[in-house]
From TrEMBL:
It comes from Nesterenkonia lacusekhoensis. It is found in: Cell membrane. Pfam families: MFS_1. It is a multi-pass membrane protein. The chain crosses the membrane at residues 16-39, 54-76, 83-103, 109-135, 142-161, 173-193, 205-222, 234-250, 270-291, 303-323, 335-354, 360-386, 407-424, 478-497. Gene3D superfamilies: MFS general substrate transporter like domains, Multidrug resistance protein D. InterPro entries: MFS (IPR011701), MFS_dom (IPR020846), MFS_trans_sf (IPR036259). Residues 18-504 form the Major facilitator superfamily (MFS) profile domain. Keywords: Cell membrane, Membrane, Transmembrane, Transmembrane helix, Transport. Its main location: membrane. This is DHA2 family multidrug resistance protein-like MFS transporter.
Length: 518
């Protein structure tokens, strides 16, 4: 009998338990992209970061993880996927403990960066080992679906878990929650997961450093503009980042085995789907981070109440993510994604109408409309990208999709978050009361966290005026950020409807393949 006709061996209980060891940390690692959104005010009160430093704390994790994902996938092939995942878990647990004990904003940025590197060690291994565990195509499809669902749930539910932890403990718990999960990986991986390696794999670490370096230079330049720093160095950083990025692309085009196969972007389905995914994640990530602070600083909710306020939108997002592939069987995926993004635009427009006195019901409704709009692009992008390239390039294509998710959210926090900060600073000066001490005025002018920390030390009437001014200015920052996100979402919807219009409904594609096979 021809080997290709031999049925693949079915996975047993051990393999499914192994899947749990892979999915659980994956969910946590993507949860870490958003888990600090609700913890930001508490952390700011203890660490005293500037508004720009707080943005770095929130987004540096995703930038480093995105920059090193592909390189760590190759390293895992070289030394062993399971081994690298265990090393990453040990590093993640250790640094999480250190981060929970940190009292310096500068050190917290460093620890979050190292956590991003540890996450990059683990994520490619989790997906790669699913292919090793499940030889049967049908079972493998179910396993990948569970893995992808876990990642989506992690991003969606991060703030809710943060709210629960903050209510009972403190912001330190948002780091310490990782320790038992990583212990599960260290103990369970050797027992339930096979090792897999490719001794011939070659890693291009220099390319990974170019990618991260170019990204961080550009983002740092953008944040300097938001902080109203001198323009010369900011422009220099943007130019330097662009040149490093160009160097990275040229290096990939010349490499026999590139770290990131940039030629895949010549495929219009790949470039279109990734552009839509990146833009939609960026639009949401920036508003999401500001909105969670708005719930606490302006609506004056506790962290748990804020987390519960987000829960309805997260639940709808999970439902829409589940239904999106069903809709894509009957309708063109590009149209399904575009409709989701246009729904998001409606939500962003509602955000522009919020003010400090808006009722909580309307605030929650605005987010319920906004958040699930990203679900179709989340649910459909990876399959669109992977199915549009030859099988030998599927690994690189899936890596691009995962990178786009991390990068999009982090770009949104960095860029749109910076827009919100700039809008706050432009408005707060005209709203602060007269007679405010210089140090209190400086703190309140930098960030809403500074205003909230300063107010209790002032005369009660003056303190109330500072809080009211900060809340009004912060809401103005949210309104401005929502306008930017709405524009980005419209652009993404247009790309989805035009660049992906050639992609047929997946149901038609499958029927055509079956007809051809018969």
């Amino acid at each position: 009998m021809n080997q290709s006709n031999t049925p693949a061996e079915k996975a047993g209980a051990k393999q499914w338990w192994g899947l749990a060891v892979l999915v659980t940390p994956s969910t946590l690692l993507f949860m870490m992209l958003t888990i600090l959104f609700l913890a930001a005010p508490n952390m700011a009160a203890d660490l005293g970061p500037s508004s720009t430093q707080l943005l770095w704390i929130l987004d540096i994790y995703g930038f480093v993880m995105a920059g090193f994902l592909v390189a760590m996938g190759v390293l895992g092939d070289r030394i062993g996927k399971r081994l690298l995942m265990i090393i990453g878990a040990i590093l993640f647990a250790g640094v999480s403990i250190v981060a929970a004990l940190t009292t310096s904003a500068e050190l917290m940025i460093a620890w979050r960066a190292i956590l991003g590197l540890a996450a990059a060690m683990m994520i490619p291994a989790t997906l790669g080992l699913i292919f090793v565990l499940f030889a049967d195509a049908k079972q493998r499809g179910v396993a990948i679906g569970v893995w992808a669902g876990g990642i989506s749930a992690g991003v969606a539910l991060g703030p809710l878990l943060s709210g629960v932890l903050l209510e009972g403990f403190g912001w330190q718990a948002t780091f310490l929650v990782a320790v038992p999960i990583m212990a599960l990986v260290v103990i369970g991986a050797p027992l339930l997961l096979p090792e897999h390696k490719d001794p011939n794999a070659k890693i291009d670490l220099f390319s990974a450093l170019l990618l991260v370096g170019g990204l961080l230079a550009i983002i740092y330049g953008i944040k300097r503009f938001a902080a109203q720093e001198p323009a010369g160095p900011s422009i220099g950083l943007l130019v330097a980042g662009a040149l490093v990025g160009l160097w990275f692309v040229i290096r990939q085009l010349r490499a026999e085995k590139p770290l990131l196969d940039v030629r895949l972007f010549a495929n219009r389905t790949v470039s279109g789907a990734l552009a839509v995914f990146l833009l939609s994640a960026a639009a949401l990530g920036g508003v999401y981070s500001i909105f969670t602070q708005y719930l606490q600083q302006v609506q004056e909710l506790s962290p748990l109440q804020a987390g519960l306020s987000i829960l309805p939108a997260a639940a709808v997002l999970i439902v829409v993510s589940t239904l999106s592939p069903v809709f894509a069987r009957k309708f063109r995926p590009g149209n399904v994604i575009a409709i989701g993004l246009l729904t998001q635009v409606v939500g962003y427009i509602l955000f522009t109408q919020l003010d400090a006195g808006t009722g909580l019901a309307l605030v929650i409704a605005s987010f319920v409309i906004t958040y699930p709009g990203v679900a179709p692009s989340m649910a459909l992008t990876t399959d669109l990208v992977v199915s549009s390239v030859p099988p030998e390039k599927a690994g690189g294509a899936s890596g691009l999709a995962t990178t786009a998710n991390d990068l999009g959210i982090s770009l949104g926090v960095a860029v749109i978050g910076s827009v919100g900060i700039a809008a706050y600073r432009n408005q707060i000066g005209g709203l602060l009361p007269d007679g405010l001490p210089a140090d209190a005025s400086t703190a309140a002018s930098d960030s809403v966290d500074g205003a909230m920390a300063t107010a209790p030390g002032l005369d009660p009437a003056l303190g109330e005026q500072v809080i009211s001014a900060a809340q009004e200015a912060f809401t103005g920052g949210l309104n401005t950020a929502a306008i930017v996100s709405a524009v980005i979402a419209v652009v993404a919807a247009i790309i989805a409807a035009t660049r992906l219009r050639h992609v047929r409904p997946t149901g038609e594609t499958q029927e055509a393949e079956q007809t051809t096979a018969s």
